[in-house]
Amino acid sequence: MNGLLWGLLGGGVSGLATTLGAIPILLRNKKISSFLKNINMDFVTGVMLSAAAFALIWPAYEKVVNREDKNVELILVSLALFSGVLFISTVGKLIEHLNRHNSNMKKNKKAMMFVIAMMVHNFPEGLASGAAMTIPETAQGFSLLTAIAVQNVPEGLTTALSFVTLGLNPLVAFIGAMGTGLVELMGGIIGGYLSHRIDGVLPLLMAFAGGAMVSVTVVEIIERLKVESYRFFVGPSFLSGILIMILFNNL
To answer: How many CB atoms lie within 10 A of CB 102?
Structure first.
């Protein structure tokens, strides 16, 4: 199977998970949607942090550490990692700048910023999904894809709820959340193609996606710490999210 098809598969699975997560919004039951959102986000944060560290960043460095020109490769991977963090940070600052100069966005600032942030960070997630399917070690690729899909389910619901906050009806909110999943599909196709066609690009794609995921996750953790202090780090949902990804990566 060529890179485009692997990328289509990886991006399609992760994008479909986002769509599935948004389905409860169509039930028109706020209690159900709110319940699903609240019980999943701590777990999702743990999954994202663990997936970024153990399924993206660490493997990216592992793939280049034994090469003859490893010093150059390690620098490139580190630059890709930093680029992923910078990518999310730059877009976040751009969104804040638009909020300050657009009165229409200020009304639902948090919801709008979340939706845009999800669309932005879904792209490197899609890159990772597509690139993961080209990893020679099939189990490692499926492990990463599973992690991304698992954390996309509650993200899909949360994105749909954010669209509702912006004043859209549930059906349009569902379609909007599905649209953020399409961003992952596009990222997956690009990631699969580049990984298959360009020798040595896989570690760079993985590091970039890992940096982006860490950046988004750290923002979420900071928000949690404002409410729960350091108790968040020993919460059962957060720890379960981390441990399940460690388990996936060692199967």
So the answer is: 12
